[in-house]
Design a protein that fits this description.
Elements lengths: L7 H14 L11 H12 L17 H17 L3 H5 L2 E3 L2 E3 L12 H4 L16 E5 L5 H9 L4 E6 L2 H13 L6 E5 L11 E6 L6 H4 L22 H10 L3 E10 L4 H7 L6 E5 L2 E9 L4
């Protein structure tokens, strides 16, 4: 046992230093070395994740210290996102199981779901059918089912591995009767239903950006990140197929991250409505069926 450590405070200070020295990247739920260190230590010690202060000066058993140090090295040397170490992720107040078969949940669309896409969706109770493409862990499908209580959600992904994770999360929230998971390349295997909403956070990272991703992102499925030369490879197919899948007053909502310029270049004849998120007005666009 390392006698340099006896309390949570000792380990927290050491962990922050290790993470900063190693120049880890924090883009999967935590925004700083301190936040991620606190989360991983509390999780490893099976302590409440929202109560750091009461435990800072708690003296730890040798085996507890060893377990935390093992976790720190795991994060530092392998550059694994914290969510893959703990198999936990949060988005919009919801928690999800995750592993390396899916992206760590993060989406600006999650910020828009609680307001039910107002004012573009005038009557949320009248939304009966929702299609979510590229569902990954199923996080947005679950949030959509909650926000639109009369809707059935069809959630698709091309990856059977991702859908296995989504199934676990759908089962956890007991939404099996309201969410149908389908293995499909975009619309290919989707039933011939008209949808009031089509929602998607597809792979949209352009080729140049893919080459510059931090090491943490390289543990995530490339299939769920890479969007071709301009990031719009899948988005083009999504937009092209949306009109025949939407009701007359339906809307398509697409997240494209930092690719607004590429999106506007890809769809010069569409009047894209850019929706406000915490990162500005460049991350998510909306198109009404009548425009398509």
């Amino acid at each position: 046992m390392n006698n340099s450590f006896s309390t949570v405070r000792d380990l927290l200070r050491y962990t922050v230093t290790r993470f900063n020295t190693a120049k880890l990247f924090f883009g999967h739920g935590s925004s700083s070395a301190f936040d991620e260190a606190a989360y991983l230590i509390l999780h490893t010690l099976h302590l409440p994740l929202d109560k750091l202060d009461p435990f800072l000066d708690a003296r730890l058993l040798p085996e507890e210290i060893a377990e935390v140090l093992k976790m720190i090295e795991h994060r530092t040397f392998e550059r694994l996102p914290a969510a893959y170490i703990t198999h936990q992720a949060w988005l919009g107040g919801y928690h999800f199981y995750v592993d390396e078969r899916v992206l760590v949940p993060r989406s600006f669309i999650a910020e828009l779901i609680p307001d039910q896409f107002s004012p573009w969706v005038s009557d949320p109770m009248a939304v009966l059918n929702i299609l979510e493409l590229c569902t990954g862990s199923g996080c947005l499908a679950i949030m959509l089912a909650d926000a639109f209580p009369n809707a059935h959600v069809v959630a698709t992904d091309i990856s059977a591995d991702a859908l296995a994770v989504a199934r676990r999360n759908v089962d956890e929230y007991q939404l099996q009767d309201r969410i149908t998971l389908i293995e499909s390349d975009l619309y290919a295997n989707v039933p011939a239903t008209k949808f009031d909403l089509i929602i998607t956070n597809p792979p949209y990272v352009n080729s140049a950006s893919m080459e510059k991703l931090p090491a943490e992102y390289l543990h995530e499925p490339t299939l769920a990140l890479a969007g071709g030369d301009d990031g719009m490879a899948l988005v083009r197919g999504i937009v092209a197929g949306a009109r025949e899948r939407l009701t007359d007053k339906g809307v398509l909502v697409v997240e494209i991250g930092n690719e607004r310029a590429f999106a506007e270049a890809a769809f010069p004849r569409l009047e894209l409505t850019w929706m406000s998120t915490s990162a500005g007005d460049d991350m998510v666009f909306l198109v009404g069926a009548e425009q398509l």
